[in-house]
Amino acid sequence: MTVLALNGVGKRFGGIQALTDVSLAVPEGRIVGVIGPNGAGKTTLFNVITGAYRASTGDVLLAGSDITQWPSHRIMRSGIARTFQNIRLFASMTVWEHLLVAQPRTGGLWRSVLPIGWTDAEARKRAEDALVFFGLERYRNVIARTLPYGIQRKVEMARALTAQPKLLLLDEPVAGMNAEEADDLRALFHRLNERGLSILLIEHDMPFVMSLCHHLYVLNFGVLIGEGTPEVVRNDPVVLDAYLGTEAA
Amino acid sequence: MSTYYAGLFADIGILFLGAMSVYIILATGQLSLGNAGFMGIGAYLASYLTVEWHWPLTAALIVAALAAALIGVIVGFPALRLKGIYLAIATLGFGEMVRSFLLNFDRMGGSGGFHGMKHVSLETIWLWAGGIFVLIVLLERSRLWLEMRAVHDDEIAANLVGLNTTATKVGAFGFGAAVAAVSGGLFAHHYVYIEPANFGFERSIDFVLAVILGGSTVGPGALIGAGLLVLLPEWLRVLADWRLAAFGVLLVLVLLTRRQGILDKPLLNRLTFRGMRA
Ligand SMILES: Nc1ncnc2c1ncn2[C@@H]1O[C@H](COP(=O)(O)OP(=O)(O)OP(=O)(O)O)[C@@H](O)[C@H]1O
Ligand SMILES: [Mg+2]
Question: What pTM was computed for the model?
């Protein structure tokens, strides 16, 4: 089954054509990567998928439903969660609060006006699990924005997971992390994937992408110029010329 | 209690409610300078119901609050397109609109004002203020409040973690308007006479001032602010003509040293010993 499919998606900002006729698919249970040079349109792709921007052309299908015109909050309640390239944590919130705020409401408006400590045992359990999964226990009551960069990234991922997505969008999850931290994250992503989570990720770190993803798409100036397994992409002359070659050189 | 202090405490209770009405809306990152408008709606509607229809005050206040909430939601929608000072100015415009409507509303006295209400006791004022305060303190520990804070901190991110920011912001306007209306209904039945000038721009500013001074990040800040705003000018009476200037200087000093207002979370935790448990 296909979790996410883009058909001929285009996005224009005034004079800039950021995406042109992009079609891609994320099959259920797969880890799919999007690579490409700076300004290729990768983040724009995420913004179109999540409804932050409206596609100028084409459509976005989530588990078969056309979500192209849906408001963001509806899309994000339908099985997608994301992180941001420029980390977006809530300035006033502790780590613990981040792990509660994105969860779907259980029991409707009525329950949501009562103190969380009184009613929402399920939500607290889920937050606790995410806290443990990312090893964030010691930061529970710390204002998330005051933490080191790498920890903040983990808080963002944990927040995304508490929304119980079927598909996780990660925008440069290991940017600014050292090799050891990146290895840790790779292991975490594998574990999530084994539990059935599909992942679409953007990343510049080639060894990381190559070792994690089942399938890759290569974007250049808003156009898909290649796709395939990591081996195929690694040896595609067009891709090498546009992107990988410059990195390898 | 002497009538002097009873009067001051009534003023504090009424201002406390008004400050809470601003606090609720501010919790979603929206500054309203028009809450005196909602207060005026509550004052006039509740007075009409008790005087003309002989309703009990409680019922009149509840209906006034619900009506104001509806108007708050209606005002909240255009407010969605505005932020920061633009929103502040638009809400200010709304407040002035209500005031000029009341001025021309001859059915209830127009500029001549309206009277005939029965005087409400100090206890009743504080029962309402205290009750709504407890509601807010509980709400501050809820999912809904967390969502309001998310909208306050980063609206785009809030939307992209699945929160309906529109409903949150409009709902906050509705709730805030309801609380302002209760403040107005009690004001009307405390002074037993109202006129449109009671619900002008200065009143809206007082509400905001109480929140900013007392502490805009925690509910009890509204209480501290309302208390100080009423009592300080009284205590400074010895300074005669200079008292308002002295009050202004104090205000600036507080804000320079504590931008978040007098009360904030760390201080509140220390005062309630919650910090020691953690
Ligand atoms: N909101 C916007 N308004 C105007 N132009 C935009 C906007 N967002 C992105 N762009 C433009 O679209 C193009 C693609 O940007 P995008 O951020 O998607 O690139 P990217 O592949 O994520 O790059 P990077 O690797 O640097 O993160 C760029 O030319 C950018 O300037
Ligand atoms: Mg990007």
Answer: 0.92
